[in-house]
Amino acid sequence: MDKYALFGHPVAHSKSPYIHKLFAEQTNQSLQYDAILSPLDAFSETVQTFFAHGGKGANVTLPFKEQAFGLVDECSSSAEMAGAVNTLIMKDNRLLGENTDGSGLVTDLIFNGIELKNSRVLVLGAGGAAKGALLPLLKKETALIHVANRTEKKALDLARQFSAYGQVSASGLVDVPHEPYDLIINASSASLAGEVPSIDSRLLNNRIVCYDMLYGREETAFNRWAKEHGSARQLDGLGMLVEQAALSFSLWRGVMPDTTRVRQALRDYLA
Ligand code: ATR
């Protein structure tokens, strides 16, 4: 049976084995997908052992996505720009790297009926999650992306890196220009601590969609705040999780699973 795995630290909490099991059942693919805890100081060895024993592909999660980028023989432009890889593919004895996180986000936004072409997007955060999202968003011909981060310099660096691909500006969280945004994406990890990036709540209105890349059993802190301050819709990152997994699965198996049923199954599983 073809073997796939997720490498991370920690990894036990991951929903990916469940998602890929559903994809495999749905598409009649015979495969095994396990979560593997990699020691923090031995990611490369752990991955190499897996592939030496016939592994066909893998996902990589925190904190190893940058290390995975350093490991591959070849990678896509999205992975190159993000400097991070979440999907490994063994093909003809070469290790290929892709980053499906940002495309998963974009696919989820489209699934939810959000028009990205000519839209004005505010991205909160300038870490790995924001970086992975920028190129896939820009490829959808957004009118403008403003990146705001607690540490302003990181936002400015990101804007500079991506400015060749479209209109990207940057600031600290408290200096976000008061412009009519269509979409605010929380790519910061603030919700993990139950916190909300300190942007002015007057940036919200009843036409703005707010999207938190995180998800959980409970509504995230950011989405709760967005609802309280009158945004039109609040979406969480569960759909992004399923879509990035589906893109990895299709790269490995050449077949795209139907994500609608898996989204629902995952919501029920979390409930
Ligand atoms: P990830 O890979 O999840 O993006 P990361 O690269 O460590 O994780 O980046 C975390 C991001 O969340 C950063 O942009 C961080 O802001 P700083 O660059 O100023 O550290 C942001 N972040 C974390 N906690 C936050 C908080 N409480 N409020 C606002 N931003 C926060």
Automatic annotation (TrEMBL):
Residues that hold NADP(+) according to the record: G125, A126, G127, G128, A129, N149, R150, T151, E152, K153, K154, M213, G237
Positions of the Quinate/shikimate 5-dehydrogenase/glutamyl-tRNA reductase domain: 115-190
GO biological process, alphabetically ordered: amino acid biosynthetic process; aromatic amino acid family biosynthetic process; chorismate biosynthetic process; shikimate metabolic process
Pfam family, one: Shikimate_dh_N
SDH C-terminal domain boundaries: 237-267
A GO cellular-component term linked to this record: cytosol
Annotated catalysed reactions: shikimate + NADP(+) = 3-dehydroshikimate + NADPH + H(+)
Annotated active site: K65
First-tier enzyme category under EC: oxidoreductase
Keywords: Amino-acid biosynthesis, Aromatic amino acid biosynthesis, NADP, Oxidoreductase
Recorded GO MF terms: NADP binding; shikimate 3-dehydrogenase (NADP+) activity
Residues in Shikimate dehydrogenase substrate binding N-terminal domain copies: 6-88
Enzyme Commission number(s) of this protein: 1.1.1.25
Binding locations of shikimate: S14, K15, S16, T61, N86, D101, Y215, Q244
Pathway: Metabolic intermediate biosynthesis; chorismate biosynthesis; chorismate from D-erythrose 4-phosphate and phosphoenolpyruvate: step 4/7
Subunit structure, as described in the record: Homodimer.
Family: Belongs to the shikimate dehydrogenase family.
Function (record text): Involved in the biosynthesis of the chorismate, which leads to the biosynthesis of aromatic amino acids. Catalyzes the reversible NADPH linked reduction of 3-dehydroshikimate (DHSA) to yield shikimate (SA).
Protein name in UniProt: Shikimate dehydrogenase (NADP(+))
